Amino acid sequence: MNIRKEGVQRKIFVVFAAFAAAMVLVFGGVTAGYLLVNEVRETKESLMTDLTAISDQFERQTRTVYQIGKTVSENREIQKALKRPSGSMEERYWDDIFFSSELLYISKYFDENISVYVLGENGSLFKSGYLSFCQENYSGEEWYQTIRREKDVTWFDIHMGSRVAVSPENQYISMGIPMNDLETNRFLGVVLVELKVDDIFAEYGKDRKEKLYMMHADHEMVIEDSRVKFYGAEKLVDMNGGIQVYEDKKDCPAYMQETAGQIRYWQRDFPSQSSFGTMGYYASYARMKTTEWILVYVIRKRELYEGVILTAVLSLLAMMGMLAATLRFSFFVSDSLTKPIRLLRESAAEIALGNLEVQVPRVSNDEIGELSDQFNRMVGSLKELLKRVYEEQEKQRAYELMLLQAQINPHFLYNTLGSLQWLIRMNQLAAAEKMTTALTHFFKTGLNNGKDIIRLREELENVESYLTIQQLRYKSKLTFFVYMEKDVEELEVPKLILQPLVENALYHGIKPKEEGGFIDIHICKEEGRVHISVADDGCGMDRLSLESLREGISKGEVSRGDSYGLKNVDERLRLFFKGSYDMKIESSPGLGTSVNIYFNVSKAGSKTADRRQNVQNSDCG
Amino acid sequence: MDMESRKNGRDKRIRKNRITKKHLILMLGVFVVFLSGGCRQKEELPFLAFSVYEQKTARMAALIGDVLSMAREDGYSIEWRSGDGSIEKQKADIRELIGRKPEYLIVVPIQTLGLGEVLEEAREQGIKIIFLDGMVDQEEFKDYLTVIRPDARWEGEECAKLLGAYFGGTEAKILEIQGIAGNSQAQLRSVGFRNQLCEYPNLELTGAVQGDFDRVTAGSNLQNFVEKSGSFDGIFCSSDEEGIGVLSVIGTAKGTEVCPIVSVNGQQDVKKALMAGYYLGSVESSPYLGQELSSIIRRDMAGEEVEKETLLRGVMYTEENAKEMQGY
What is the pTM of this model? Predict the structure, then answer.
């Protein structure tokens, strides 16, 4: 983007871009902030929701396990069978089949994933499940003795495979209740209830970023990818695909150590369900009422904020994109607004350098478009005006050139010099001297030191010289009279305006008249205007010739040979006096012709005054 | 430097060159040995995928345990899934297992029909399919490597023979408790039993109810049959689970009266019933198919041709030889 350092476009661009960028940043920032906060909150809520769901399910099922265990342990029929001394094999096996069927119906009634086993001291083995017992006597097992020692319920944490049956590699939690005679409190055997938990963990633990971690009074365990790992006080047992013992406590995952430490720190007085953050992890936990186990969902803070970071990056990218678009748009707007103005400015500069061919293209239909049109019209007018001025100046120069040529008309000069020669030969020296003086004066005033403007007095002197020469040539055939009022003598007019008129009067009016004639030049002021009259009593013109002459002058179509001098005078006076000038030609056959020129005194006077003022100013320096 | 010393120097260089060539050859040899050794080391044992249609019964628990033990003993890695009695679940399981790119897919099919599509998907990916303890319909899928299963037809025949011997020439009504509908083993047992029963004109097949290889289903369906005044003198069950189910119902209904029950499998609960004298007999249908499976995989890996079908036959157990019964 090419932004000028100064100028309207830059100002518009800066203001517009700053405003738009501020809007984008504020809006983007608020949106991103909202998204970020929301994302974190939702992730945490989702963590707690999932944990609540799994702990509720766990709680429900462990409660069911407890109910089944209690129901079976207090079943009088089963107690009766266990109280029976080891009788015949036939009786015992029938009891096994019969009570196993009973237990199967009890188990089916509560939950199919729960298996109940009754292991009697008298050798009876009842089971609810389809699985076969893996041995015939369990009284020597450590867990059996643990159940026997406890007065109430013993919970065993997650273990791989059933404790009593030949089972596939499933995970179970189990609960044991000692079965004591309801009347004598004699120990009859144990009830072992096992709950298959694979499905629960598969639902909540598989393919998740969170780790499901379970704390127990004696040790902790963690469930990863729906498989369980135990961490004991001295060893870590990996139950995934066989048993593997880690002797080193350092093998315990860091998140377990951190979260376990935190929960233990609060253990004295912490709510049954809450969330907290450690150095590197965020954890939600729920304490189960039936088993007192604590289920913990642990997620790395890095993973927790993964979505947040992604949202932030996307928001930032979106904001940068919007910002770039805003800057581009700002440039476009400022450019589109200032482009016509810039074009005008550049065009004006071109005109200043004299190029009037410039045209500003109309780029819009608004006020700026109108401005372009007006500018183009103005340039057109200026061009027209200058053309006209140029043409007028050209004309003026042409006329002046022609006048000069007329002044040094070879015929006039030849005739005058011929007359002068004749006068000298005739020894009329006084007349010759007069003619020579008049000729000298005529050329002197005609040239006027190269100036175009001349005082009326000087102009009249020039024409008097001319008439004097002509009178000496034509003797008594020409008489003339010259009059000029005193107060118009100093008025300025273009030079050589009278001589062409007088020459016309002489050659077209007097000369063709045999008896000669009279030329009267009268210059005076009438009603605020200067009136110059050149009249003769020559042969005059008929009406048609007069009208033709008038029309020719008004249209500028006078041929060079006829009244070209008259047209020349008319044009120059019109250029000089503009609208304040008039020329009237009157003529009658046999009576003569008069040419009357009128122009405003103020016009002539003001020009003179202005010029004088200028001269004074320049003199003052 | 004189000519002699130059000559010695040249000789040394030549000797040096000879040593270098020897070294090169030696290094090349070591490299080849290393490569061949490396290649042998890279010969990883195949990954096995194992799909069973259920896992809750003792027989299936034993079968799963045996296959997993075999795989671990032989050093194979194995993933297994249970269909929990649903063909849809088993199809989903197989698809998931296919995704793990196993070399062998071992399937215990729930039914003869319905798995063809997913098995075809497995075959298209170059996975070798082995049917265990059952098979699918040949029209549906026949590009399997092998099938290892008990001779179910023979098992049915043996049951009929035992009932025939029990009743002698006495006329009797026999009730059939059928296994999972559509299961190949259940169908073959039924066919074998019925065909053999024809050899005993005094024995009449009075009816057949569904047992689904499940003791609860078999028990409740038998109860319905009894309530509808269906009478019978002996029962053939497609599996021991069904046999235990009907035994608990008959025991409740008839007290100590013994009704001859014959079934197939040879599991622990039936062993007890046999020893207690409440059961007529059970044909052992061994779930321990791991050894046969291991042998087949080994031979196939060695490039040997393996037989398309391996049929296994067990022993008929009665009260007399019940103590010898392994009873899984």
Answer: 0.59
